Amino acid sequence: MASLAKDTAIYGISSIVGRFLNYLLVPVHTKFISPQSGGYGIVSNMYAWAALIFVLLTFGMETTYFRFSNKTEENSDMVYSTALRLVGGVSLLFIALVFCFLGPISDYLGYSNHPEYVGCFAVIGGLDAFQAIMFSRLRQQHRPVKFMALKMAFIIPNVILNVAVFALLPRLFGAIPSLQGLYERFDYGVGLIFFVNLLCTGLITLGFLKELKGITFGFDARLARRMLSYAWPILLLGLVGILNQVFDKIAYPQLVPGHEGKVQLGIYGACVKIAMILSLLTQAFRYAYEPFVFGGAKDRNSDETLAQGMKYFIIFGLLAFLAVVLYMPVFRYLVTNHDYWVGLKVVPIVMMAELFMGIYFNLSFWYKLIDQTWWGAVMSAAGAAVMILINVAFVPRYGYMACAWGGFAGYGICMVMSYLIGQKKKPIPYPMKEIFKYCCIAAVIYFASTDLAPMLPVWASLLLNTVLLGIYVAYLLKKDLPLASLPVVGRYFRKK
C-alpha cells in the first residue's frame, strides 16, 4: 500500500492544488458575472457539453490502455501507439464534422449568435481526448511529477488569463475602445473564457513532445479490435456516468427555457463548484488506484486490498463532506456575489451524490478485473435513467433542487446495484460494520450541526462545528489511523 499512498499523495497534491487554483476562478467569475445576466449559466452549459464530448472522444481508451499495457503477452509500446492513433483519429473526425455542420449544431444548442463557442469547444474536446491518452501513459509509467507539472502548466496560465480578462481588460477600454466592443460581443467576457481555455490547452501539447513520438511505434489492427471490444462497454459506462453528472446542466435550458433558465443554471452551477471539493478525493484516488490495481503484482488486486481501499475512501470521503458542510459559512465565500448564495442548499445533497459516485468507482473493480465491463454499462444506465426521469419530471416545477436530488438518486442506484451484484459475481469482504459506524457518526454530527448551528452566531456555530468535526477525527485516529503510525509526527508518539 506504500506505493499507492505515495502516488495518491502526488496526484492528490496536483489535483488539490490544481482544483484550488481553478476555484480561484469561481470568485472571479461570480464577482464579474452577475446571476441575473445568465452568463454563468452559459459557462455551466458549455462545460457540461465539454465533459460529454471528452467521454465520447476517449471512448474508454484510458482504462483499456491500462488493462492491455499491463498484460504480459502485450507489447506496451504498441498498445500505447494503437490507443493514441485511435483516439487521435476519432478526435480529428469529430472536429471536422462539427465545423462542417457548425451552423445547424449552434442553432440546436441555442448559440445561433455564437457559433464560435461551439467550434472552440470542438477543438478543446479533441485536444483534451488526445492528451488524455498521453496523461494515461504518464500514470502507467508512474511519472506523477511530470503529470503534475503539465496539469499546472494548463491551470496557472488559465487562471492568470481569466483574471486578466475580467479585472484588467476593462481598464483598457478608454485607451483602446475596440476592446470594449470585443468584450461586449462575447457576452461581456464570458466567451473569452472559452478562448483562453483553448489557448492553454493547445500550449501544453508542447510538453508532450516525448510522448507524441510514441505514435510512431505502429498500429496493430488485431490489437485495436480487441481493445475496442473491451472499450465499448466502458464507453457506455462513461456515457451514462457523465450523463449522471452533466445532464442537468445540458438539459436545464430546455427544461426551463428562456433567460430565466440561464439565470437559475448559473446559480446552480456556481454553488455546485463548492460541492465538487469532494471530487478531489475521488479523482486523486482514481489516478493512483487504477494503475495500481491493474499492475502486475498479485497482491495489488487482492480482495483485502480492494476492501481496505473502499474503507479508507469512505472514511476520508465522509471527513471531506463534514469539513465542507460544517464550515459552509467560510466556503460560501468562494462564490463572491451573495446573489448566488440562494443556491447553497444544494451543496450537501450534491456532495453526497459525489460520495456515492466515488463508492461506485471503488465497487467497479469487480467487473473490470473479470473483464465483464458491460455490467458497468447496465448499472450506470439504470442510474442515469432514474436521474433523467427526476430531472425531466421535477426541474420545471422545483428548479435546480430537482437536479441535486436527481444526481443523488442516480448514483445511489448505481452504488447499491454494483454492491449487490458484485457480491455475487466476485465477493469482496468489505468491512461493512466498520464502514457503517463511520456513516452513523457522520450522520449524527451532520444533523446535530443542522439543528443547533443555525440558532447561534456565526462564530459560535463555527466553534460548535469544530468540536463536532473533532469528534469524528478523534474516532478516526483512535480506530484506524493511530498517531504513532503517521510519518514524522508518529516518531514522537512511538517514543512515548
Describe the structure.
The protein is mainly alpha-helical and 496 residues long. Helices cover 79% and strands 0% of the residues. The longest helix has 35 residues, at 221-255. The relative contact order is 0.11. The model has no long low-confidence stretch (mean pLDDT 85).
Helix fraction by DSSP (H/I, runs of at least 4): over 70%
- Number of beta-strand segments: 0
Low-pLDDT runs of 5+ residues are none
Structural class, by secondary structure, is mainly alpha
Instruction: Name the quaternary structure.
Output: single chain
Q: Characterize the largest beta sheet: strand count, sense, and whether it forms a barrel.
A: none
Keywords:
mainly alpha, globular
Quick rundown:
With 496 residues, the protein is mainly alpha-helical. The protein is built from 23 helices and no strands. Helix 4 packs antiparallel against helix 12, helix 12 packs parallel to helix 19 and helix 15 runs antiparallel to helix 17.
Task: Indicate the topology.
Layout: H1 2-23, H2 25-32, H3 39-58, H4 61-69, H5 76-100, H6 102-109, H7 115-140, H8 144-168, H9 177-185, H10 190-204, H11 209-212, H12 221-255, H13 259-275, H14 277-293, H15 303-326, H16 328-331, H17 347-363, H18 365-369, H19 374-398, H20 400-425, H21 432-452, H22 458-479, H23 489-495
